[in-house]
Design brief:
The complex is a heterodimer. Chain A has 4 helices and 9 strands, in the order βαββαββαββαββ. Chain A is of the alpha+beta class. The radius of gyration of chain B is 24 Å and the shape is globular. The chains are: A alpha+beta, B alpha/beta.
């Protein structure tokens, strides 16, 4: 599994180009998240792909060939922080609810909705942590789940910022 | 100045230096055609939109400038797909402009509406829909910039009809391209550069693999200096032909599936390969597991995505070929390497014996004879535009190009039907050049409708059909790998000379070797286009041949006594 971060222009069709490229390279995407950045014209993607380092290099280099991709970087080998967020609707009645609450404490999950027969749990963390929580919730009956997919950021001073816009150079007609 | 979108488009193209464009009108592009009539642009009416894209491509390859093709929405646009993909695979700067239905109708399956940007996404370097007149000038300028920069490629601009009709302020100064600010990567680090120098100066059996990128970057001079500075032997890719003179003693010829035997052996024996502007395509490497196993590799390449894609390299110098070569040249130590050059010469001597040109004249007309005579008669100075198949390989083997951009051929996609329209484009790019089409009887029948374009435009092109009555290359594969079961390869063709006549073009037929030179000579002297139907040996094959997937040194060689099974009917 390889993790890439890309800064892209926040425009219609860009997501399509990115995912179409992965398809063309026969690389299966495990998760792809897109969100705005502090600059509203730029979005940030975290792409987690089923491939090896060579495939990740091709994906990274090919992504940067897309006009709307400002930067793509394989950060798999770097020290990084990864987070996934999940909303899990789990069956819960009078008897099971206290047990569930105890479990959630261990996983630092939060109950965000309570209904007579179910709860919605919000949990964030590494993929392993969420998978771990799911494992223990399953016996109670997981009714529905939504996960965001991973977002990732390199640690400390290892910054990955979008390239600064520069004034467009006057282009002489070459043709 | 207030202009309609259509007028803005024409004005922008003119200011970008466009003089000729190739297209076909239709409903959704009509406003542009109306404006074209009032502009200084010369529009070439094609007979099929695929032809328009090949013409723009041929124009681009012969000149190095951006070629422009135009079509209407729907089927006009989809007919361009093959031509766009051809340009993409061979990194050719082409801008395609398509009309689109009005922006209010987008996504409604309106008459002749098709999602052409969706269709062409993987076969363009970039594409874009424009639905506002005020965006046309900037977008088209951006398209030219993208098509022509870095590793070139086709760009498609789809303009809605309402954008063509609406009026907007046209201001050239304000419509400068505004492409997004991309990260600037360090091209390569010092360690890679130092390693390259060390490899170059210590190699005992170095060999350069010269590709298309040399021509694209205009690196011919730097490349020649580099080659002579290190006294390196040079092998050419198909698209690299012309980047380094064929008559230079250091030029060994073409590599790969139908490359010269001594070249492929030299690659396998080399201890250093220096790849310049080429991408280790499977047609030049053969089986990657056995490819140049004893060689270290240096890869000079502008596209970072090509590095380590097929062949793992020891030093990657990502950048423009000319810039990188110019940086390397001062560090080169001239080495004579007599053993290595002697070894190559020895291998070459062995191979030349099998060459068809060395065989006694049996009275049969071989394609190789035709190409060889064409080369001699044109002093190697013609722009030769080939199609795809056996004749293409024979051209590469027997026509010796000394100048860049004189061989125009579809390499990566291998598009049959390319030659005739691409030659028309090349002729517009180089009106004074002697342009020859070398095409098979199969490929010619795919786009022969463009003969009418030649006549309508009153241009002079010479067409040599290498007619063997088969889809020859496929037949060759059937002969070698399918026990001569010739399924769907015998090919009925019209009388090409008579066909040419019906278009108003002079047609000739040649069946004997003795008539080749005189017919070529007469065609060159004739002021209008001439088509020559060369009836060549039907079941001849291209040698040597590395079977697909085999190792590069495992070549099928021409038998000592070539099978002459059938003579063509006169």
């Amino acid at each position: 599994m390889q993790t890439l971060v890309a800064y892209v222009e926040n425009k219609p069709g860009v997501l399509n180009r990115v995912s179409s490229l992965a398809r063309r390279l026969a690389i299966n995407i495990d998760s792809l998240t897109v969100g705005p950045t502090e600059n509203e014209e730029i979005a940030r993607m975290t792409i987690v792909a089923h491939t090896d380092a060579k495939g990740a290099h091709r994906l990274e280099a090919s992504l940067e060939k897309l006009v709307e991709v400002l930067l793509a970087e394989n950060i798999s080998e770097r020290s990084l922080l990864e987070r996934d967020l999940a909303l899990i609707k789990v069956a819960a009645d009078q008897q099971s609810r206290p047990h569930l609450m105890d479990l959630l404490k261990v996983f630092r999950g939060r109950v965000v909705d309570v209904a007579p027969d179910s709860l919605i749990v919000e949990v964030s963390g590494t993929v392993d942590k969420i998978d771990g929580l799911l494992e223990v919730l399953r016996p109670y009956g997981v009714l529905e789940m939504a996960r965001t997919g991973r977002i990732a950021m390199t640690r400390g001073g290892d910054l990955l910022q979008p390239p600064a816009a520069e004034p467009a150079p006057a282009v002489a007609a070459k043709n | 100045m207030k202009l309609t979108g259509a007028e803005i488009l024409c004005e922008t193209l003119e200011r970008l230096g466009v003089t000729d464009l190739f297209g076909y009108p239709g409903g959704a592009i009509l406003p542009v055609y109306d404006a074209l009539g009032k502009s200084k642009l010369h529009h070439v009416l094609v007979r099929h939109e695929q032809g328009a894209t090949h013409m723009a491509d041929g124009y681009a390859r012969a000149s190095g400038k951006v070629g422009v093709a135009m079509a209407t929405s729907g089927p006009g646009a989809t007919n361009m797909v093959t031509g766009i993909a051809t340009a993409m695979l061979d990194s050719s700067p082409v801008v395609c402009i398509t009309g689109q239905v009005g922006s209010k109708l987008l996504g409604t399956d309106a008459f002749q509406e098709i999602d052409i940007t969706g269709i062409t996404m993987p076969i363009t370097k970039h594409n874009v829909v424009v639905s506002r007149a005020e965006d046309i000038a900037r977008t088209v300028r951006e398209a030219f910039q993208i098509a022509d920069s870095g590793r070139p490629g086709p760009v498609l601009v789809d303009i809605t009809k309402d954008a063509q009709q609406a009026s907007a302020e046209f201001d050239w100064e304000k419509s400068v391209p505004k492409l997004p600010a991309k990260r600037k990567r360090a091209r390569y680090d010092q360690a890679d550069f130092d390693r390259a120098i060390e490899l170059l100066n210590t190699a005992k059996r170095p060999l350069i693999l010269a590709g298309h990128g040399i021509m694209i970057s205009g690196a011919m001079k730097a490349f020649s200096e580099f080659v002579h500075a290190g006294h390196f032997p040079v092998a050419m890719t198909l698209l690299g032909i012309g980047a380094f003179p064929a008559n230079d003693p250091l030029n060994l010829g073409m590599m790969g599936m139908h490359g010269e035997a001594w070249v492929n052996h030299a690659i396998q024996e080399a201890d250093l390969l220096i790849a310049v502007g080429m991408r280790f395509d499977d047609r030049v490497t053969g089986d990657l597991r056995t490819y140049a196993k004893s060689a270290k590799k240096i890869h000079i390449e502008i596209d970072r995505a090509e590095i380590n894609k097929n062949v793992k390299v020891d030093s990657a110098l990502v950048g423009d070929a000319r810039e990188v070569l110019e940086q390397l040249i001062p560090h080169m130590e001239k080495k004579e390497r007599p053993d290595w050059h002697g070894r190559i010469k020895e291998m070459k001597g062995d191979s030349a014996v099998r060459d068809i040109q060395s065989l006694p004249d049996s009275g049969h007309l071989y394609a190789a004879h035709v190409i060889n005579d064409l080369w001699k008669e044109t002093n190697g100075d013609a722009i030769v535009v080939t199609d795809v198949g056996q004749h293409q390989m024979w051209e590469a083997q027997y026509y010796h190009h000394n100048k860049p951009r004189t061989l125009v051929t579809s390499g990566g996609l291998g598009t049959m039907g390319f030659a005739l329209p691409a030659a028309i484009g090349a002729k517009f790019a180089k009106p004074d050049a002697d342009v020859w089409v070398v095409v098979g009887d199969g490929g010619f029948q795919m786009t022969m409708c463009e003969l009418a374009t030649i006549v309508q435009e009153k241009i002079k092109i010479n067409i040599a059909i290498i007619n063997n009555g088969y889809l020859g290359m496929v037949r060759q594969w059937q002969e070698f790998f399918y026990d001569k079961r010739y399924v769907a390869t015998p090919l009925v063709a019209p009388d090409f000379a008579a066909l040419a006549n019906s278009f108003g073009i002079r047609g000739e037929r040649v069946t004997a070797r003795g008539d080749v030179v005189s017919t070529i000579r007469a065609a060159r002297e004739y002021k209008e286009s001439v088509l020559i139907d060369f009836r060549v040996e039907q079941e001849d094959s291209v040698y040597p041949m590395v079977p697909a997937g085999a190792s590069l040194h495992e070549m099928i060689r021409r038998p000592n006594n070539p099978l002459v099974e059938t003579a063509t009917e006169p």
